[in-house]
Design a protein that fits this description.
single chain, 485 residues, 7-stranded mixed beta sheet
């Protein structure tokens, strides 16, 4: 099995003494987990991925990240200290031992990587998977497996297991204000599958053009275009997407929005605009595709309710477990208007893949037992702490950088001086920091009005790094930013 962990930041020429680098450890192989950990750390030092003087995480931190017993990590450290690969001193922690020259690789060892991984990853769109609730998931899986009827392991209903759809209907109504009937919920293997299915259904129903926000995820754009739909961009301002433009574009019969927390700008759709787009859909027979991006993670006020609750016959609601649990589960859902259910199921039946039954039953058990709510509350507190750390670090060391989009979600937007985005990203790369600029998410590279109106910026995700690496990631970020006047 593979495990990953990250230490504190390094610079572009390799880890500096006292810091570290992101290191991905393969613990597979003969001898069990302890032997695999020793072998992986030894190869990392020998190949140069861990430079002399690099400080390793404490045995407690590394054990938590890898899901191992602390004694296993402590024993591995002890053996490598005895072999001379590491040093351990009171008050200084465990570090890579100094050496005059790299040791020659032993026969059969893992060859060094040709490209060094970034020391830190602050790209947006990913949750902290190290916080996946393993114990709660395992407990729920055992209960779900024990209670599952025999027919659960037969052919899968295209809508998904009834247990999950029923649990989702209750949860979404309670937590997000969605008016959901289990019969109108379709479980998908990820958001993109659901968007692709619905896009093809809309195309068959005569839709040719879809309104999209001028900033967003390019693969959502691509899913629409693969279905044969043209994308018509809507400008993003301080009140969200310019939905009034829909009335001027007669060919647009559907619109894809992230109204709770627009990605990536972080602007919620203003109540007046929410009412306006619902009125447009009811009046014209249009369809609103509501991506509830980051809807569960709001920090400074109550969550923004869903558009779907205002017009369930005109809005398709999309939700996912990617942020709340982990993207690797491949679990998402659509709440469909009744008139779309049959066409979506017919298309899904024709060769589309489905999520695993046991994962569906386990998520249903998490929802009904309350464990899902407890996990989301805990993660909300964790992400809020990280957001506050980010804001405090910038206020202390880069007060000239304006931060926006922080009321919800797992990322913040940092406004940069004009013309500095590319140079800042290059500086971040030299710091061993993976970042993405605002321009990456702007369709066509310019705003819907024809100019780069939102200027240069960074989209800083604070969900990915494990807790012990976050402070170092922020230090690397600050070192990468352009200086103030």
């Amino acid at each position: 099995m593979e495990k990953t962990w990250a230490t504190s930041a390094g610079d572009g020429d390799g880890p500096r003494p006292g810091t570290g680098a992101d290191l991905h450890l393969d613990l597979s192989g003969p001898g069990g987990v302890r032997a695999g950990l020793i072998r992986a750390l030894r190869d990392a030092v020998r190949s140069g991925r861990l430079a002399p003087g690099t400080r390793l995480p404490s045995s407690r931190s590394l054990a938590a990240d890898l899901g191992l017993a602390r004694n296993t990590v402590a024993d591995a450290y002890g053996e490598l200290v005895a072999e001379g690969w590491l040093t351990a001193r009171q008050g200084s922690g465990t570090r890579v031992a100094p050496r005059a020259a790299p040791r020659a690789p032993e026969r059969g060892s893992t060859p060094p990587r040709t490209a060094r991984r970034p020391a830190y990853d602050l790209r947006p769109g990913t949750a902290d998977v190290s916080a996946f609730p393993r114990a709660a998931w395992l407990s729920a899986a055992r209960r779900a497996l024990a209670a599952a009827p025999n027919d659960a392991f037969g052919h899968v209903d295209e809508r998904g297991r009834a247990e999950l759809r029923t649990a989702l209907a209750d949860y979404l109504a309670r937590a997000r204000g969605v008016r959901a009937d289990p019969e109108r919920i379709v479980v998908c293997a990820g958001f993109t599958q659901g968007l692709s299915l619905l896009s093809r259904v809309l195309r068959r129903r005569g839709v040719r053009e879809v309104g999209v926000e001028e900033y967003g995820l390019w693969f959502h754009h691509e899913a629409l275009e693969r279905a044969g739909l043209r994308c018509s961009e809507l400008a993003i301002g301080p009140y969200g997407a310019d939905v009034a433009a829909l009335g001027e574009r007669r060919g647009v019969r559907a619109v894809l929005l992230t109204p709770a927390h627009q990605f990536p700008t972080g602007v919620p759709l203003h109540p007046d605009r929410r009412a306006a787009v619902v009125d447009w859909a009811v009046r014209t027979g249009g369809t609103i595709l509501e991506d509830d991006y980051d809807g569960e993670f709001r920090y400074d006020r109550q969550p923004v309710g869903c558009l779907q609750g205002l017009a369930p016959d005109r809005v398709v609601y999309f939700g996912t477990a990617s942020k709340s649990l982990a993207p690797g589960l491949r679990l998402s859902w659509m709440v469909l208007p009744e008139h779309l259910v049959g066409d979506v199921l017919a298309l899904k039946r024709a060769g589309e893949w489905s999520s695993g039954v046991l994962d569906q039953l386990t998520l249903a058990e998490l929802l009904t037992s309350g464990a899902y709510d407890r996990h989301v509350r805990a993660m909300r507190q964790r992400y809020r702490r990280r957001r506050d750390q980010l804001v405090a670090e910038l206020a202390a060391h880069a007060p000239h950088i304006r931060v926006t989009g922080i009321a919800a979600g797992l990322h913040a937007v940092l406004a940069l001086p004009p013309g500095t985005e590319r140079a800042t990203l290059q500086a971040a790369a030299w710091q061993g920091l993976a970042l993405q600029g605002l321009s990456r998410f702007r369709f066509g590279g310019t705003s819907a009005s024809g100019s780069a109106s939102s200027g240069d910026g960074l989209i800083v995700g604070y969900g990915t790094p494990p807790d012990h690496a976050f402070a170092g990631a922020l230090e690397a970020l600050v070192r990468s930013l352009p200086p103030g006047d």
